[in-house]
Amino acid sequence: MVKMQDQGSAGSHKNQGENAGQPKANKIGPSTAYGYCRERLSPFGGLLGLVKFLDLVSFKEIFEGFYKPPERMPEMGHYNMVCGILLLLFIGFTRVWHFLYLQFDAVVCGLFNRVKLPYVTTYWRYVDSLGINQGMSLLLVMSALRERVWQLCGLSYQTIHINIDTTVETIYGRQQGGRKGHNPKNRGKKGFRPVLCFIEETREYFMGKLRRGETIGGEEVAALIRVFKKYLPGCVKKVILRGDGEFISWEAVKAAREEGFHFIFGNKVCAPPFASAGWYKVRKNDPVEYNEVMYQPAGWGETCRFVCLRIPQAAPSGGNAQFELLKDASYIYRIFVTDLTAAAHTVIEEYDQRADCENLIGEAKREGLEAIPSRKFGNNYAYFQIVMLAYNIWRSFKMLAAHGMREMEGHEPASETACKAQEIVDHTIRIGRLKLLFIAAKVATHSGTTEVKYSRHDSRVAGLFRFMGYLDKRRQQARPWLSGNFWECKHLPFLGIPQADAFG
After folding, report:
1. Ordered DSSP codes for 402-425
2. Which helix (H) or strand (E) holds 90?
3. Helix, strand or coil for residue 204?
4. Is residue 6 over pLDDT 70?
5. How many CB atoms lie within 10 A of CB 413?
6. Cα 158 from Cα 155, distance rounded (Å)
7. Beta carbons of 442 and 40 less than 8 angstroms apart
């Protein structure tokens, strides 16, 4: 018979030799006793660091300044309801009903000053009240958050690359907006076709939207480009847009030119007349050749620069042959339209740097992008942006952790510190959870004061403590967007903070 017990052995053993001071190994087997304890435990101890981070960037101020709430006021308030869903996604759960697993978690409940979270139906009702207006307002929340994180991390990019791409979300019900379209994994199935834009330099989600299932059209791409400036950080002066052949059209090119953006779009709409004498090689023994031409496709308002790469059929391409328009059995061609003036091979090399966009989309899907919570398109549109906000919070969280490491470990060789810090940024969100979130904690209360305690035997705790100490230190300092020591935060006026007051 297995004996139930509330407390472990009270015996103490002294270790000798090299193991002195170390805990004695515990043997656990099929007959090991088990039972209850009185402490409130949580596997998500790293959430305390998240709370400190959100306080540092004044996230509640940003949220309440830009979020357009639905008409119905929930008992917990709009901020706590959205934050609840964000925490759910931040932890790694992707469905609203997964709140069942958090209802009594000590740390999660403590963040909302509750003994237990509301029933799942409460969150369902709130998601059901959301629409496109709420989703669009969350894009402004993300933009303001981005500015503040960049300033905290000492980032002042004057030039950024925005990678644009679409993906397919297959649906299996009667969701509004579902359409049959290009769906390579589930042919013939209905789905959504959201468009997502990422900043190459930081791997952050810039903006995007949930779309119906059809392939995106030129006018829709142009409308998307024309609102980019609204979401750009105040330090950015130059933008280079990169998109595959799905985004090429005269409307898109015209919009980019009128907005002052540079662009490289894959070409799948025309076959420009490249001069046979214009082909050149970068390296003598390299089979790859490059060319360029000024050309005005039918229906376009102006001539544009087209650059091309061709590879002999017998040689491995090493690239994407999706833009094969020139009928030549001897070569594989890749053609792009651009306004950049660099050499053709340099332009194509710059375009190929957007390959990471597919990885970022894949990660976003794993973080909940493929979850379709409702039949209503408006609900799903808003939930899409909440998922991407949680994605960006993770990105920001890791960026600040890396920046904190550089500041705290400045005494180490620069290369070593930079390498370790960059690893934090480059790791997937799943790895970030293992290092910064999934750390066991005990919530204790003494004399009316709540304390979160961690095991000294977890090797990750020391790093978490250093990061939280860094956050506490920064919380006591003036915020850069208010101190006047950095570039101008364009979203301050929208939060009711006059620019003159902030930057005197």
Report:
1. HHHHHHHTTTS-HHHHHHHHHHHH
2. helix 78-91
3. strand
4. no
5. 9
6. 9
7. yes
403 alpha carbon, distance to own chain's centre? 17
What class is the 157-367 domain?
alpha beta
The whole-chain average pLDDT of the chain stands at: 88
pTM above 0.85, yes or no: yes
DSSP three-state, residue 238: strand
Task: Name the token pair of 107.
Answer: 């740390």
At 375-416, the pLDDT tens digits run 899 999 999 999 999 999 999 999 999 999 888 876 555 666
What dihedral angle (degrees, nearest 10) is formed by the CA atoms of 381, 386, 391, 397?
A: 160
- The residues pairing with 264 across neighbouring beta strands, listed in sequence order, are 242, 338
- Contact (CB, 8 A) for 262 and 239: yes
Those residues whose C-beta lies under 8 Å from the C-beta of residue 469, and which sit 6 or more positions away, are none
- What's the pLDDT tens digit per position in 463-501? 999 999 999 999 999 888 877 777 888 887 777 766 544
Q: Which residues contact 361 (CB under 8 A, 6 or more apart)?
A: 165, 167, 196, 369
Collapsed DSSP state (helix, strand, coil) of residue 18:
helix
Q: Are 429 and 387 in contact (CB under 8 A)?
A: no
Extract the tokens encoding 461.
């705790």
Task: Tell which residue, 127, 67, 69, 135, has the closest CA to residue 95.
Answer: 127
- β-partners of residue 333 are 310
Interatomic CA distance for residues 81 and 216, integer angstroms = 33
Cβ atoms of 319 and 352 closer than 8 Å = yes
- Side-chain-side CA neighbours of residue 318 (13 Å): 11
Query: For the chain, which residues make up each domain, given as ranges?
Result: 157-367
